[in-house]
Amino acid sequence: MSVRIRGLRVELAGRAAVSDVDLDVPAGEVFGLVGPNGSGKTTLLRALYRAVRPVSGSADVAGAPVANTGRRALARLLGATTQEVVRAGGLAVREVVAQGRTAHLGLLSRPGPEDEDAVRRALRATELAGAADRDVSRLSGGELQRVVIARALAQRPQVLVLDEPTNHLDLRHRYAVLQLLGELARGGTTVLLTAHDLDLAVRFCDRLGVLDGGRLVAAGEPGEVLDERLLAEVFGIRARTERAGGRWRLEVDGPLDAQSSDHSCTG
Ligand SMILES: Nc1ncnc2c1ncn2[C@@H]1O[C@H](COP(=O)(O)OP(=O)(O)OP(=O)(O)O)[C@@H](O)[C@H]1O
């Protein structure tokens, strides 16, 4: 298994943000974590790249136990994009993307042809080649989001972890990024992402996991997992998935009204 999580529990400020999560994601899959605000999606991803320490349970990435793997070694296996905005003043797009190669360089060694090729391809894949010399502090939210994705691509990790990778992107770039992630997965990369846009998640993810109150309450093929009952109970919407043209899509009627739903703000 490329990502293997067992009994994971993470507490933040004394409260469980993630509880008893078991999850397996094989190589070559796009796996989407979905769930309402505050359900633990970001926290689960953060545990994978050691930004939070679980109180119990374990996570392995590409066969390496996260808890016992140094940051640098982990960065050679796992690339992550986060919701935290990187606007390091004065850095050019190309320099930020090149940071993705840091874990592959020896302590005193300079970037070689392979590093330059990885950066060039990442810039091209995210349609940033023409913006390579721009100052990142002057980019729009969507352009910056593509820079962060490009940096993770340049890392060429076995596992890509992306927190809301498309939330700032216009429709064309949303589809372009999700298509790109699908192609990377077909090439053997494991892609684990979070998404609020359920329609895009059911279209582009091979499997989905639903978090609710920190627990993984369902996992499997989009059409199997997101049935009408779960969509109502967890997301508070009247909706269903349909299969059309070989892909799942989501048909939403609207929100359940307050009386007929237990759904409440947990964020
Ligand atoms: N730094 C923090 N300190 C204390 N509690 C936190 C902190 N960050 C998150 N939490 C809490 O942990 C729980 C899970 O939060 P998390 O950000 O993982 O959810 P999420 O599913 O990613 O939410 P969203 O969809 O809103 O991004 C929430 O109850 C949240 O309020």
What's the gist of this structure?
This protein has 9 helices and 12 strands. With 267 residues, it is an alpha/beta fold. Helix 4 (113-125) runs antiparallel to helix 5 (141-154).
Features:
ATP-binding; AAA+_ATPase; 267 residues; alpha/beta; nucleotide-binding; 31% helix; transport; single chain; 12 strands; binds adenosine-5'-triphosphate
How would you characterize the overall build of this protein?
The chain is α/β, with parallel strands linked by helices and about 270 residues long. About 30% of the residues lie in helices and about 30% in strands. A six-stranded mixed β-sheet has the order 6-7-8-3-9-10, with helices on both faces. A four-stranded antiparallel β-sheet has the order 2-1-4-5, with helices on one face. Strands 11-12 form a two-stranded antiparallel ribbon. A hairpin with a 2-residue loop joins strand 11 (about 235-245) and strand 12. The protein starts with a strand and ends in a 12-residue tail after the last strand. The model has no long low-confidence stretch (mean pLDDT about 90). The site of adenosine-5'-triphosphate has 12 residues, from helix 1.
